[in-house]
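Annotated sample (chain length 497).
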Amino acid sequence: MRHEDLLVDRFELLGQEKYRQLSETVAQDAKRLSPETEIVPHRVEFEDPWDFEEVYAALLDFARRYPFDTQKEEYLIHITTGTHVAQICLFLLTESRHFPGRLIQTAPPKGKREQRVGSYQIIDLDLSKYDTLATRFAGEAADSQAFLKSGIETKNRKFNALIEQVERVSVRSRDPILLTGPTGAGKSKLARRIFELKEHRHQVSGELVEVNCATLRGDAAMSALFGHKKGSFTGAASDRPGLLRAAHKGIVFLDEIGELGLDEQAMLLRALEEKRFLPVGADAEVKSDFQLIAGTNRDLQQQVAKGRFREDLLARINLWSFELPGLAQRREDIEPNLDYELEQFANVGGRVRMSKDVRQRFLKFARSAEAEWRGNFRDLNAAVRRMATLAESGRVTAGGVDDEIERLNANWTPQASSADDLLIEAIVGAKAFAKMDPFDIPQLANVIRVCQSSTSMAAAGKKLFRVSRAKKANPNDSDRLRKYLARFGVDWKSLRP
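Output written by the structure step:
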């Protein structure tokens, strides 16, 4: 109050009853120095000023009672005097906006105190207002995002925006994260990167446990996830802690979570909400404080509609959902990912080079609509490994690129391997089959099977047209069936044994 540039309209003086005389002395001194300042005493009681829990609770109660009016007033919270515990509590309550103001830190004068005024500093805990800090935090965020992308300079705007959100959520939240997208889009890799980022920030102290739910079935799924007690079922020769317990204080990544059975889903939901669960055959529950990252290439909303996935579990894990685009939707990122894959190969198989012309030859194909990239980044990884492995003298040639393009196209060409495909091709011939639309194949296959299992064309027609024939005055099922088969060059006799 000796600073002419710091005008205090009202001073809220917090004190205990046993220090009433000291509080009154302070109020008198303050009034003498600054007659225009209103001094308002408050009683804040606690037994032990070094008890963090007690002091914090007392100050929190005061903050909740006080009628702050931030529209008309500005507040400064003084943190210099008192025990260290009181200062820490005031700092935390100001940071959390229970005290909606800024900190004021004062210091006594240097030298002879009677001749000088002390100093003060006002601190705004909105760190974004400090240019140097804001720049540093922005740089750290950019570094974290680059880490999540494995240092790959991606150009796809949608993917970069997604990674920016993933970075913020990863360092600020322990809620479940759901990663969706096609197989090979990088869900497992991103989950590992999230774990490593949180580990670097000292936000996890446990392990990363990765589980492919597609490999878990029946009792083995329960035992693998939640553990079991010795003798709980045939083959349980010893206790098993389970993967969720192994992830205590760490992260469990459940890849293909849509493949979990409904019973496992129910237990997982309880484990997420209560951090405890009952191992198979156990009488007592166990605890595990883990964070969940889930991955799936399925539409879980559709799975819920079909009764294959619990709606309450989806609601719990869908708080932070990120859909990773496939490689075909990120063609502008193929070039930096090509460089990344070549660097990865160099670590295990030696450095391999591509001339500018050869590189452009591969990229021209990779970025074109001809390249389907069905396996996404797995396809790209496999392509680079094949070209690098076959490169003579550590240099990929134009011929090597052409061979790889041919190999990729062959892998992406639909093969007549399904039961429907094999049935139709055997009846109409390979040439006619190649000209058929995929749309027609399953329908024709169903018609042929009905014909093969029926004693006559009329009987087959009755089965195939049982709904529409009721609307006709004189249904001729045999004629309708004959005309349908003729569209594909098939006649009734060719379907008989």
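Annotation: Residues 301 and 447 are 32 Å apart (CA to CA).
Annotation: The mean pLDDT is 89.
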